[in-house]
Amino acid sequence: MIMTTEYILSEVKNGVLVITINRPDKLNSLNKQTIEELHETLVEAENLPEIKSIILTGAGQKAFVAGADIAEFANYTIEQGRQLSATGHFKIFNFIENYSKPIVAAVNGFALGGGLELAMACHIRVVSDNAKMGLPEVSLGVIPGYGGTQRLAQLVGKGKAFEMIVTADMINATDAYKWGLANHLTTQEELLPKCFEITSKIASKSPTAIRTAIKVINAGYNNHVNGYEVEIEEFGKSFGTGDFKEGVSAFLDKRKADFKGN
Ligand code: COA
Fold first, then answer.
1. What ligand 1 atom has the least distance to the C-alpha of 70?
2. Model confidence pTM above 0.85
3. 168 with 136: CB under 8 angstroms?
4. Both 118 and 42 in a single domain?
């Protein structure tokens, strides 16, 4: 049982944990406490085998997340700024990217600065037609510090990433979809149903293989390892798993696989 906390609502539905960042009066901006609570929720969910995937969204009609909490960092020193970024990477952004279960961002409004960086750290993004996405940090005299300089270029290409970051422009949901920043574009009503459609497919597949696939895809974006070599090793290891035996037996027996995630 995952607890709802002050700023994080947690609800489990059919093996999916729906996490709602719940600070709507501040457009769900990420203060320290929200980051801590989100981290703790993710840590707890990782150890619950009944949770197969996560949907992450923002409370209210207006925003997914409107960035890091500007009021909180207004008087930070250089060292505090560095720490803000490092802690964020460790507890949320890299943590989500390397999470063992797929995380789908349901982008239901503004996704700005740390909010877009949060959506980009997720494995899959679905956006509703009222979404507005951008990295406006240079308007404040800072740069994106939660992975935005790296992940935006990976998703939309270097040219568009440069333009979005140096102009601080927001893009609408249609452009986000056209540019590959969003996997799917829906109406506001269809946003969560579309996310559940994706998570229901994930739920019937091998958790072990999914965890490994996330690891290997990410390896391709890590300059210190060779993604192809990691793939060879991990592909080989798959043959030693219970899920592999079950998946292949089920196929040969013409029945539905019942994966145990082992
Ligand atoms: N940090 C802290 N508070 C924020 C915030 C953020 N990133 N984004 C919004 N808020 C707060 C506002 O200060 C306001 O609080 P208040 O009612 O106590 O004054 C409340 O959320 C509502 O925002 P508001 O600006 O009144 O809404 P709007 O519809 O006029 O504008 C935005 C919406 C998203 C365009 C605007 O809030 C904005 O530009 N936010 C900052 C985005 C940003 O630069 N993010 C990157 C941070 S690194």
1. 1
2. yes
3. yes
4. yes
Residue 2 domain-assigned (yes or no)? no
Tell whether 132 and 213 lie within a shared domain: no
User: To test the ligand 1 pocket, which listed residue (7, 21, 26) has its Cβ within 8 A of the most ligand atoms?
Assistant: 26
pLDDT digits (tens, 9 = 90+) for 3-37: 899 999 999 999 999 999 999 999 999 999 999 99
pLDDT tens by residue, 179-237: 999 999 999 999 999 999 999 999 999 999 999 999 999 999 999 999 999 999 999 99
The reply to whether ligand 1 has any atom less than 6 angstroms from the CB of 69 is yes
CB count within 10 Å of CB 43 equals: 11
**Residue 262 forms part of a structural domain:** no
Please, what's the b/e burial string for 149-168 (b: 16 or more CB within 10 A of its CB; e: otherwise)? bebbbebbeeebbeebbeee
Task: Read off the DSSP letter of residue 113.
Answer: T
Say if ligand 1 is within 6 A of residue 115 CB.
no
The ligand 1 atom nearest the CA atom of 112 = 45
Pocket test for ligand 1, best of 22, 25, 27 (most atoms within 8 A of CB): 27
Are residues 183 and 101 both part of a single domain? Answer: yes
CATH code at 18? 3.90.226.10
Overall domain count for the chain: 2
